[in-house]
Design a protein that fits this description.
It is built from 17 helices and 5 strands. It has 438 residues and is mainly alpha-helical. Helices cover 71% and strands 5% of the residues. The chain has a 3-stranded antiparallel beta sheet. The chain has a domain at 26-198: Preprotein translocase SecY subunit (Orthogonal Bundle), CATH 1.10.3370.10. It has helices at 12-21, 23-42, 52-61, 63-71, 87-99, 104-112, 114-146, 155-182, 187-197, 200-214, 219-241, 277-296, 301-314, 317-339, 342-351, 363-398, 409-436, and strands spanning 243-250, 253-255, 258-260, 264-270, 354-355. It is globular. The longest helix has 36 residues, at 363-398. Helix 9 (187-197) packs across helix 17 and helix 15 (342-351) crosses helix 16 (363-398). The protein starts with 11 loop residues before the first helix and ends with a helix.
Amino acid sequence: MKKPAAPLNKMWYQRITQIFKLPDLRNKILFVLGIFAIFRIMANIPIPGINAENLKNFFGQFQMFGLLNMFTGGALSHLSIVMLGLGPYITATIIFQLLTMIFPQLEKMYKEEGEAGRQKFNQYCRIATVPLAALQGYGMLAIFQRQNVISALSPSLFLTSILTIIAGALFLMWLGELISEKGVGNGVSLLIFAGIVADFPNNIRQLILQTQTAGAARIPNIILFFVMALAIIVGVVLVNEARRNIPVSYAKRVRGMRLYGGVSTYLPLNINPAGVIPIIFALSILLFPTMIANFLGGAGGQVGAIAKSIGVWFQNPWLHGILYFLLVVLFTYFYTAVTFDPKTISTNLQKMGGFIPGIRPGQSTANFMYYILNRVLLVGALFLGTIAVMPSIVQGVTQVQQFQFLIGGTSLLIVVSVVLETVSQINAQLQMREYETF
Protein backbone atom coordinates (compact mmCIF):
# COMPACT_ATOMS: atom_id res chain seq x y z
CA MET A 1 0.00 0.00 0.00
CA LYS A 2 1.38 3.44 -1.01
CA LYS A 3 2.39 5.75 1.81
CA PRO A 4 0.80 9.19 1.96
CA ALA A 5 2.71 12.13 0.46
CA ALA A 6 2.57 14.16 3.66
CA PRO A 7 6.35 14.01 4.27
CA LEU A 8 6.89 16.13 1.15
CA ASN A 9 5.11 19.04 2.85
CA LYS A 10 7.30 19.23 5.93
CA MET A 11 8.02 22.50 7.68
CA TRP A 12 11.36 24.18 6.96
CA TYR A 13 12.88 23.26 10.35
CA GLN A 14 11.93 19.60 9.81
CA ARG A 15 13.68 19.68 6.44
CA ILE A 16 16.84 21.15 8.00
CA THR A 17 16.78 18.38 10.61
CA GLN A 18 16.31 15.79 7.87
CA ILE A 19 19.26 17.19 5.86
CA PHE A 20 21.64 16.56 8.76
CA LYS A 21 20.19 13.11 9.42
CA LEU A 22 21.14 11.93 5.91
CA PRO A 23 24.92 11.23 5.88
CA ASP A 24 25.57 11.85 2.17
CA LEU A 25 23.58 15.10 2.02
CA ARG A 26 25.08 16.28 5.31
CA ASN A 27 28.58 15.62 3.99
CA LYS A 28 27.84 17.60 0.83
CA ILE A 29 26.64 20.60 2.86
CA LEU A 30 29.69 20.43 5.16
CA PHE A 31 31.97 20.12 2.12
CA VAL A 32 30.52 23.34 0.64
CA LEU A 33 30.92 25.14 4.00
CA GLY A 34 34.54 23.93 4.16
CA ILE A 35 35.22 25.36 0.69
CA PHE A 36 33.68 28.65 1.84
CA ALA A 37 36.07 28.70 4.81
CA ILE A 38 39.08 28.15 2.52
CA PHE A 39 37.85 30.96 0.25
CA ARG A 40 37.50 33.38 3.18
CA ILE A 41 40.98 32.53 4.50
CA MET A 42 42.55 33.13 1.08
CA ALA A 43 40.62 36.40 0.70
CA ASN A 44 42.50 37.76 3.73
CA ILE A 45 46.05 36.79 2.68
CA PRO A 46 47.47 40.00 1.09
CA ILE A 47 50.27 40.52 -1.39
CA PRO A 48 53.26 42.50 0.03
CA GLY A 49 53.85 46.28 0.10
CA ILE A 50 50.32 47.64 0.75
CA ASN A 51 49.57 51.16 2.04
CA ALA A 52 46.34 50.61 4.00
CA GLU A 53 45.25 54.29 4.11
CA ASN A 54 45.79 54.85 0.37
CA LEU A 55 43.99 51.59 -0.34
CA LYS A 56 40.92 52.72 1.63
CA ASN A 57 40.85 56.10 -0.14
CA PHE A 58 41.22 54.43 -3.53
CA PHE A 59 38.14 52.22 -3.09
CA GLY A 60 36.17 55.17 -1.77
CA GLN A 61 37.03 57.17 -4.91
CA PHE A 62 36.49 54.58 -7.65
CA GLN A 63 33.01 52.98 -7.60
CA MET A 64 33.91 50.39 -10.25
CA PHE A 65 36.50 48.80 -7.98
CA GLY A 66 34.05 48.97 -5.08
CA LEU A 67 31.62 46.84 -7.12
CA LEU A 68 34.34 44.35 -8.03
CA ASN A 69 35.38 44.21 -4.38
CA MET A 70 31.83 43.26 -3.35
CA PHE A 71 31.83 40.27 -5.72
CA THR A 72 35.22 39.07 -4.44
CA GLY A 73 34.04 39.21 -0.82
CA GLY A 74 36.55 41.92 0.13
CA ALA A 75 39.46 40.04 -1.46
CA LEU A 76 40.22 42.98 -3.77
CA SER A 77 40.14 45.59 -0.99
CA HIS A 78 42.68 43.47 0.93
CA LEU A 79 44.73 42.96 -2.26
CA SER A 80 44.71 39.27 -1.42
CA ILE A 81 46.08 36.42 -3.51
CA VAL A 82 42.54 35.81 -4.84
CA MET A 83 41.93 39.52 -5.49
CA LEU A 84 40.39 38.83 -8.94
CA GLY A 85 37.89 36.32 -7.58
CA LEU A 86 36.14 34.39 -10.35
CA GLY A 87 36.15 37.43 -12.65
CA PRO A 88 38.59 36.05 -15.27
CA TYR A 89 36.68 32.75 -15.58
CA ILE A 90 33.30 34.49 -15.85
CA THR A 91 34.72 36.93 -18.43
CA ALA A 92 36.11 34.02 -20.46
CA THR A 93 32.73 32.27 -20.39
CA ILE A 94 30.87 35.38 -21.54
CA ILE A 95 33.42 35.99 -24.34
CA PHE A 96 33.06 32.44 -25.65
CA GLN A 97 29.26 32.64 -25.48
CA LEU A 98 29.40 35.79 -27.62
CA LEU A 99 31.85 34.11 -30.02
CA THR A 100 29.26 31.42 -30.75
CA MET A 101 27.45 34.09 -32.83
CA ILE A 102 30.55 34.55 -35.01
CA PHE A 103 31.92 31.02 -35.38
CA PRO A 104 29.37 28.38 -36.49
CA GLN A 105 31.63 25.49 -35.40
CA LEU A 106 31.80 26.86 -31.87
CA GLU A 107 28.02 27.30 -31.82
CA LYS A 108 27.52 23.73 -33.07
CA MET A 109 29.87 22.38 -30.38
CA TYR A 110 28.11 24.32 -27.61
CA LYS A 111 24.49 23.73 -28.65
CA GLU A 112 24.38 20.48 -30.63
CA GLU A 113 27.12 18.14 -29.40
CA GLY A 114 25.55 17.44 -26.02
CA GLU A 115 27.53 16.91 -22.82
CA ALA A 116 30.81 16.19 -24.65
CA GLY A 117 30.55 19.48 -26.57
CA ARG A 118 29.80 21.47 -23.41
CA GLN A 119 32.78 19.90 -21.63
CA LYS A 120 35.06 20.89 -24.51
CA PHE A 121 33.54 24.39 -24.47
CA ASN A 122 34.18 24.66 -20.72
CA GLN A 123 37.77 23.51 -21.26
CA TYR A 124 38.31 26.37 -23.72
CA CYS A 125 36.93 28.78 -21.10
CA ARG A 126 39.35 27.40 -18.50
CA ILE A 127 42.31 27.86 -20.86
CA ALA A 128 41.25 31.43 -21.70
CA THR A 129 41.07 32.20 -17.96
CA VAL A 130 44.89 32.14 -17.71
CA PRO A 131 45.69 35.04 -20.13
CA LEU A 132 42.69 37.02 -18.88
CA ALA A 133 43.85 36.64 -15.26
CA ALA A 134 47.37 37.70 -16.29
CA LEU A 135 46.05 40.76 -18.13
CA GLN A 136 43.69 41.80 -15.32
CA GLY A 137 46.35 41.17 -12.67
CA TYR A 138 48.90 43.29 -14.56
CA GLY A 139 46.36 46.08 -15.02
CA MET A 140 45.35 46.05 -11.35
CA LEU A 141 48.93 46.13 -10.06
CA ALA A 142 49.86 48.92 -12.50
CA ILE A 143 46.87 51.03 -11.38
CA PHE A 144 47.60 50.42 -7.69
CA GLN A 145 51.25 51.39 -8.14
CA ARG A 146 50.30 54.58 -10.01
CA GLN A 147 47.88 55.53 -7.23
CA ASN A 148 50.51 54.75 -4.52
CA VAL A 149 48.28 52.05 -3.07
CA ILE A 150 51.24 49.63 -3.14
CA SER A 151 54.93 50.45 -3.11
CA ALA A 152 57.04 50.15 -6.24
CA LEU A 153 57.71 46.48 -7.04
CA SER A 154 60.92 45.14 -8.53
CA PRO A 155 60.50 43.28 -11.87
CA SER A 156 60.95 39.89 -10.18
CA LEU A 157 58.46 40.70 -7.39
CA PHE A 158 56.00 42.14 -9.95
CA LEU A 159 56.20 38.92 -12.00
CA THR A 160 55.81 36.82 -8.85
CA SER A 161 52.75 38.83 -7.83
CA ILE A 162 51.12 38.33 -11.24
CA LEU A 163 51.81 34.57 -11.14
CA THR A 164 50.34 34.44 -7.63
CA ILE A 165 47.20 36.28 -8.81
CA ILE A 166 46.83 33.87 -11.77
CA ALA A 167 47.23 30.89 -9.43
CA GLY A 168 44.61 32.35 -7.06
CA ALA A 169 42.08 32.81 -9.88
CA LEU A 170 42.66 29.24 -11.15
CA PHE A 171 42.44 27.86 -7.61
CA LEU A 172 39.04 29.53 -7.08
CA MET A 173 37.86 28.18 -10.43
CA TRP A 174 38.93 24.69 -9.30
CA LEU A 175 37.12 25.13 -5.96
CA GLY A 176 33.96 26.10 -7.84
CA GLU A 177 34.15 22.98 -9.99
CA LEU A 178 34.74 20.85 -6.87
CA ILE A 179 31.53 22.20 -5.34
CA SER A 180 29.60 21.46 -8.56
CA GLU A 181 31.02 17.93 -8.66
CA LYS A 182 30.93 16.88 -5.00
CA GLY A 183 28.66 19.37 -3.26
CA VAL A 184 25.23 20.90 -3.79
CA GLY A 185 24.42 23.58 -6.36
CA ASN A 186 26.52 25.45 -8.90
CA GLY A 187 30.02 25.97 -7.52
CA VAL A 188 30.85 29.24 -9.30
CA SER A 189 27.50 30.79 -8.31
CA LEU A 190 27.91 29.67 -4.69
CA LEU A 191 31.40 31.21 -4.42
CA ILE A 192 30.10 34.51 -5.82
CA PHE A 193 27.21 34.28 -3.34
CA ALA A 194 29.71 33.70 -0.50
CA GLY A 195 31.68 36.76 -1.61
CA ILE A 196 28.59 38.98 -1.64
CA VAL A 197 27.27 37.99 1.81
CA ALA A 198 30.74 37.84 3.43
CA ASP A 199 30.41 41.45 4.64
CA PHE A 200 27.12 40.74 6.43
CA PRO A 201 28.59 40.71 10.01
CA ASN A 202 30.48 43.95 9.31
CA ASN A 203 27.27 45.57 8.03
CA ILE A 204 25.47 44.63 11.26
CA ARG A 205 28.31 46.11 13.34
CA GLN A 206 28.31 49.38 11.35
CA LEU A 207 24.53 49.69 11.58
CA ILE A 208 24.60 49.19 15.37
CA LEU A 209 27.38 51.77 15.79
CA GLN A 210 25.55 54.34 13.64
CA THR A 211 22.30 53.71 15.53
CA GLN A 212 24.07 54.25 18.85
CA THR A 213 25.55 57.50 17.53
CA ALA A 214 22.35 58.87 15.96
CA GLY A 215 20.02 57.66 18.71
CA ALA A 216 16.38 56.60 18.50
CA ALA A 217 15.64 59.04 15.66
CA ARG A 218 17.32 56.63 13.21
CA ILE A 219 15.21 53.57 14.13
CA PRO A 220 12.17 54.46 11.89
CA ASN A 221 14.51 54.78 8.88
CA ILE A 222 16.05 51.38 9.63
CA ILE A 223 12.59 49.76 9.94
CA LEU A 224 11.53 51.39 6.65
CA PHE A 225 14.72 50.12 5.01
CA PHE A 226 14.08 46.50 5.96
CA VAL A 227 10.39 46.72 4.98
CA MET A 228 11.40 48.02 1.54
CA ALA A 229 14.11 45.37 1.30
CA LEU A 230 11.59 42.62 2.08
CA ALA A 231 9.18 43.94 -0.58
CA ILE A 232 11.99 44.09 -3.16
CA ILE A 233 13.14 40.55 -2.36
CA VAL A 234 9.57 39.22 -2.72
CA GLY A 235 9.28 40.97 -6.09
CA VAL A 236 12.61 39.56 -7.29
CA VAL A 237 11.62 36.02 -6.26
CA LEU A 238 8.26 36.29 -8.06
CA VAL A 239 9.78 37.61 -11.30
CA ASN A 240 12.74 35.23 -11.12
CA GLU A 241 10.38 32.24 -10.88
CA ALA A 242 7.81 33.59 -13.37
CA ARG A 243 7.38 31.68 -16.64
CA ARG A 244 5.34 32.13 -19.82
CA ASN A 245 4.36 28.61 -20.82
CA ILE A 246 3.92 28.00 -24.55
CA PRO A 247 1.85 24.83 -25.22
CA VAL A 248 3.60 22.20 -27.38
CA SER A 249 2.05 19.03 -28.79
CA TYR A 250 3.80 16.05 -30.36
CA ALA A 251 2.33 14.16 -33.31
CA LYS A 252 1.73 10.42 -33.02
CA ARG A 253 4.30 8.28 -34.81
CA VAL A 254 4.31 4.54 -35.44
CA ARG A 255 7.68 2.78 -35.31
CA GLY A 256 7.47 -0.95 -35.77
CA MET A 257 4.70 -2.19 -33.53
CA ARG A 258 4.86 0.78 -31.11
CA LEU A 259 3.07 4.11 -31.06
CA TYR A 260 5.11 7.15 -29.98
CA GLY A 261 4.12 10.78 -29.30
CA GLY A 262 0.62 12.11 -28.98
CA VAL A 263 1.45 14.01 -25.77
CA SER A 264 1.19 17.68 -24.85
CA THR A 265 3.66 19.68 -22.78
CA TYR A 266 4.87 23.26 -22.32
CA LEU A 267 7.88 25.27 -23.42
CA PRO A 268 8.65 27.69 -20.55
CA LEU A 269 9.96 31.18 -21.34
CA ASN A 270 11.55 33.01 -18.41
CA ILE A 271 10.34 36.55 -17.72
CA ASN A 272 14.00 37.44 -17.11
CA PRO A 273 16.02 35.18 -19.45
CA ALA A 274 19.13 37.41 -19.40
CA GLY A 275 19.80 37.09 -15.65
CA VAL A 276 22.25 39.60 -14.15
CA ILE A 277 24.45 40.06 -17.24
CA PRO A 278 22.66 43.24 -18.53
CA ILE A 279 23.21 44.99 -15.19
CA ILE A 280 26.92 44.08 -15.22
CA PHE A 281 27.33 45.30 -18.82
CA ALA A 282 25.44 48.54 -18.16
CA LEU A 283 27.32 49.30 -14.96
CA SER A 284 30.70 48.65 -16.60
CA ILE A 285 29.94 51.04 -19.47
CA LEU A 286 28.47 53.67 -17.15
CA LEU A 287 31.41 53.64 -14.72
CA PHE A 288 34.10 53.54 -17.41
CA PRO A 289 33.92 57.29 -18.34
CA THR A 290 33.97 58.24 -14.64
CA MET A 291 37.01 56.04 -14.01
CA ILE A 292 38.90 57.52 -16.98
CA ALA A 293 37.94 61.05 -15.89
CA ASN A 294 39.27 60.40 -12.37
CA PHE A 295 42.57 59.13 -13.75
CA LEU A 296 42.99 62.09 -16.13
CA GLY A 297 41.62 64.72 -13.75
CA GLY A 298 45.04 65.46 -12.29
CA ALA A 299 46.74 65.78 -15.68
CA GLY A 300 46.24 69.55 -15.85
CA GLY A 301 45.66 71.69 -18.92
CA GLN A 302 42.80 71.20 -21.35
CA VAL A 303 42.72 67.42 -20.89
CA GLY A 304 42.37 67.72 -17.12
CA ALA A 305 39.62 70.34 -17.41
CA ILE A 306 37.61 68.19 -19.85
CA ALA A 307 38.09 65.12 -17.64
CA LYS A 308 36.86 66.99 -14.55
CA SER A 309 33.78 68.32 -16.35
CA ILE A 310 32.92 64.79 -17.58
CA GLY A 311 33.37 63.45 -14.04
CA VAL A 312 31.03 66.11 -12.60
CA TRP A 313 28.48 65.47 -15.37
CA PHE A 314 28.35 61.73 -14.66
CA GLN A 315 28.07 62.31 -10.89
CA ASN A 316 24.60 63.84 -11.33
CA PRO A 317 22.35 61.23 -9.62
CA TRP A 318 19.38 61.84 -11.93
CA LEU A 319 21.46 61.51 -15.09
CA HIS A 320 23.24 58.44 -13.69
CA GLY A 321 19.94 56.77 -12.77
CA ILE A 322 18.25 57.45 -16.14
CA LEU A 323 21.26 56.25 -18.18
CA TYR A 324 21.63 53.20 -15.95
CA PHE A 325 17.97 52.24 -16.41
CA LEU A 326 18.05 52.70 -20.21
CA LEU A 327 21.32 50.76 -20.63
CA VAL A 328 19.99 47.83 -18.59
CA VAL A 329 16.84 47.67 -20.74
CA LEU A 330 18.88 47.79 -23.98
CA PHE A 331 21.37 45.16 -22.84
CA THR A 332 18.53 42.86 -21.73
CA TYR A 333 17.28 42.74 -25.31
CA PHE A 334 20.83 42.46 -26.71
CA TYR A 335 21.99 39.61 -24.47
CA THR A 336 18.74 37.67 -24.92
CA ALA A 337 19.15 37.96 -28.70
CA VAL A 338 22.67 36.50 -28.32
CA THR A 339 21.78 33.57 -26.08
CA PHE A 340 18.20 32.69 -27.08
CA ASP A 341 17.42 31.73 -30.69
CA PRO A 342 13.72 30.94 -31.41
CA LYS A 343 14.64 29.75 -34.92
CA THR A 344 16.86 26.97 -33.51
CA ILE A 345 14.15 25.94 -31.03
CA SER A 346 11.58 25.88 -33.83
CA THR A 347 13.85 23.66 -35.95
CA ASN A 348 14.45 21.25 -33.05
CA LEU A 349 10.72 21.03 -32.34
CA GLN A 350 10.04 20.24 -35.98
CA LYS A 351 12.69 17.50 -36.01
CA MET A 352 11.09 15.85 -32.97
CA GLY A 353 7.57 16.07 -34.40
CA GLY A 354 6.52 18.86 -32.03
CA PHE A 355 4.35 21.85 -32.88
CA ILE A 356 2.51 24.72 -31.21
CA PRO A 357 -1.29 24.20 -31.59
CA GLY A 358 -2.68 26.59 -34.22
CA ILE A 359 0.81 27.56 -35.51
CA ARG A 360 2.50 26.04 -38.55
CA PRO A 361 5.87 24.35 -37.90
CA GLY A 362 9.03 26.04 -39.16
CA GLN A 363 9.28 29.79 -39.74
CA SER A 364 5.75 30.51 -38.48
CA THR A 365 6.64 28.90 -35.14
CA ALA A 366 9.84 30.96 -34.94
CA ASN A 367 7.90 34.17 -35.69
CA PHE A 368 5.30 33.31 -33.01
CA MET A 369 8.06 32.71 -30.44
CA TYR A 370 9.69 36.04 -31.37
CA TYR A 371 6.30 37.69 -30.86
CA ILE A 372 5.86 36.14 -27.40
CA LEU A 373 9.50 36.70 -26.41
CA ASN A 374 9.49 40.43 -27.24
CA ARG A 375 6.43 41.01 -25.05
CA VAL A 376 7.67 38.89 -22.16
CA LEU A 377 11.10 40.50 -22.43
CA LEU A 378 9.63 43.99 -22.06
CA VAL A 379 8.43 43.07 -18.56
CA GLY A 380 11.79 41.47 -17.74
CA ALA A 381 13.79 44.45 -19.05
CA LEU A 382 11.72 47.02 -17.12
CA PHE A 383 12.02 44.84 -14.01
CA LEU A 384 15.83 44.61 -14.37
CA GLY A 385 16.12 48.36 -14.93
CA THR A 386 14.04 49.05 -11.81
CA ILE A 387 16.10 46.63 -9.70
CA ALA A 388 19.32 48.26 -10.98
CA VAL A 389 18.38 51.76 -9.77
CA MET A 390 16.57 50.60 -6.61
CA PRO A 391 19.64 50.82 -4.29
CA SER A 392 20.01 54.54 -5.01
CA ILE A 393 16.29 55.14 -4.37
CA VAL A 394 16.12 53.15 -1.12
CA GLN A 395 19.36 54.60 0.25
CA GLY A 396 18.22 58.11 -0.66
CA VAL A 397 14.91 57.62 1.18
CA THR A 398 16.20 55.80 4.29
CA GLN A 399 19.81 57.08 4.50
CA VAL A 400 20.91 53.52 5.35
CA GLN A 401 24.12 52.68 3.45
CA GLN A 402 24.59 49.09 4.69
CA PHE A 403 23.14 45.80 3.34
CA GLN A 404 23.27 46.87 -0.31
CA PHE A 405 22.79 43.25 -1.40
CA LEU A 406 19.28 43.28 0.13
CA ILE A 407 17.84 46.16 -1.90
CA GLY A 408 18.64 45.52 -5.53
CA GLY A 409 21.27 45.52 -8.21
CA THR A 410 23.37 42.62 -9.37
CA SER A 411 24.08 41.35 -5.87
CA LEU A 412 20.42 40.80 -4.93
CA LEU A 413 19.65 38.98 -8.19
CA ILE A 414 22.65 36.70 -7.68
CA VAL A 415 21.80 36.01 -4.03
CA VAL A 416 18.13 35.22 -4.81
CA SER A 417 18.99 33.05 -7.85
CA VAL A 418 21.64 31.06 -5.97
CA VAL A 419 19.43 30.52 -2.90
CA LEU A 420 16.45 29.39 -5.01
CA GLU A 421 18.58 27.07 -7.14
CA THR A 422 20.37 25.53 -4.15
CA VAL A 423 17.15 25.05 -2.14
CA SER A 424 15.53 23.48 -5.20
CA GLN A 425 18.40 20.98 -5.56
CA ILE A 426 18.33 20.09 -1.85
CA ASN A 427 14.54 19.59 -1.97
CA ALA A 428 14.91 17.39 -5.05
CA GLN A 429 17.44 15.18 -3.26
CA LEU A 430 15.22 14.96 -0.16
CA GLN A 431 12.18 14.03 -2.24
CA MET A 432 14.17 11.43 -4.15
CA ARG A 433 15.12 9.73 -0.89
CA GLU A 434 11.52 9.90 0.38
CA TYR A 435 10.20 8.29 -2.80
CA GLU A 436 12.78 5.52 -2.46
CA THR A 437 11.18 4.53 0.84
CA PHE A 438 7.70 4.00 -0.72
